[in-house]
Design goal:
Layout: H1 7-22, H2 34-43, H3 63-83, H4 89-93, H5 98-114
Length: about 120
């Protein structure tokens, strides 16, 4: 079993995937929301600029998890790039590719929550 150096960051990724897997229009006003999920999944990891596989052992537990994250990032970043950073949440959630985000985030979330990597020993 892979040891995860940053279990708190991993928890943020799992939370982000849970949000993305369940968001439907109209956009809820509760926390966490779309902005939080994007922040945790992209801004905090820079996975829009580098491969999630580089975080195996720190945030992710396997290449399978990295691949699932990459699959989620493809439609999500395409939507973000197309609509820009200032669109209303409902514009993202009604984008023709949003169903891809839901599907891939659901898979990644299920994968990451079914595996419990060990925490580093201190």
């Amino acid at each position: 079993m892979t040891t995860i150096a940053w279990p708190g960051r991993r928890a943020d990724i799992i939370d982000a995937l849970a949000v993305l897997a369940t968001l439907r229009p109209p956009a809820p006003t509760s926390w966490p929301g779309l902005t939080d999920a994007v922040h945790w999944l992209i801004d905090d990891t820079f996975w829009d600029q580098r491969q999630p596989g580089s975080d195996i052992g720190t945030i992710l537990g396997s290449a399978e998890e990295a691949d699932a994250i990459t699959a989620t990032l493809h439609p999500l970043t395409a939507i973000l790039d197309e609509l820009g950073p200032t669109a209303a949440d409902d514009e993202y959630l009604t984008h023709p590719r949003w169903h891809e985000v839901i599907h891939t985030a659901t898979h990644a979330h299920q994968l990451m929550t079914s595996q419990t990597p060990a925490r580093p020993e201190h």
